[in-house]
């Protein structure tokens, strides 16, 4: 009976066959390749989002510099980026400034702001109370 028991235990501990191991390795490799591709797409999306936010921020900064009186001041744009400025006279004393910032991947952020010159307001004359 001892011999029969040892034979059945040896039979029970055979392990995986070569075909099962290869199938598991193939499944693992395909899963890993899918995860790596997903990670790459996710990284590209984050990069695209970061560049979009940077473009909007840069366009806003250009408008702030223009409003502060630096109409001809040129801010430094990152390499590969293009910044264009357009001025449109809308009415007497009003103009619209449009800043367009294009990223190296051709995403474009366009911001516009109206600047109107207000005429000086005369201070009302104050009457002196009778004495």
TrEMBL record:
Keywords: Protein transport, Transport
InterPro entries: N_methyl_site (IPR012902), PpdC-like_C (IPR022204)
Keyword set includes Nucleus: no
Keyword Protein transport tagged: yes
Domain of life of the organism encoding this protein: Bacteria
Subcellular location: Membrane
GO BP, one annotated term: protein transport
Protein topology in the membrane: Single-pass membrane protein
Segments traversing the membrane: none
Ranges of residues in domain Prepilin peptidase dependent protein C-like C-terminal: 38-116
Main localization of the protein described in the UniProt heading: membrane
NCBIfam families in alphabetical order: IV_pilin_GFxxxE
Identification of the protein by name: Prepilin peptidase dependent protein C-like C-terminal domain-containing protein
UniProt organism field: Musicola paradisiaca (strain Ech703)
């Amino acid at each position: 009976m001892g011999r029969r028991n040892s034979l059945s235990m040896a039979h029970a501990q055979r392990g995986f066959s070569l075909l099962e191991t290869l199938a598991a390795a193939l499944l693992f490799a395909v899963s890993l390749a899918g995860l790596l591709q997903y990670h790459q797409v996710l990284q590209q999306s984050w990069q695209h989002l970061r560049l979009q936010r940077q473009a909007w921020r840069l366009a806003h900064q250009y408008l702030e510099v223009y409003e502060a009186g630096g109409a001809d001041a040129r801010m430094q744009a990152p390499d590969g980026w293009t910044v264009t400025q357009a001025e449109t006279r809308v009415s007497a004393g009003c103009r619209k400034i449009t800043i367009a910032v294009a990223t190296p991947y051709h995403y474009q952020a366009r911001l516009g702001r109206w600047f109107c010159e207000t005429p000086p307001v005369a201070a009302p004359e104050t009457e002196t109370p009778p004495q």
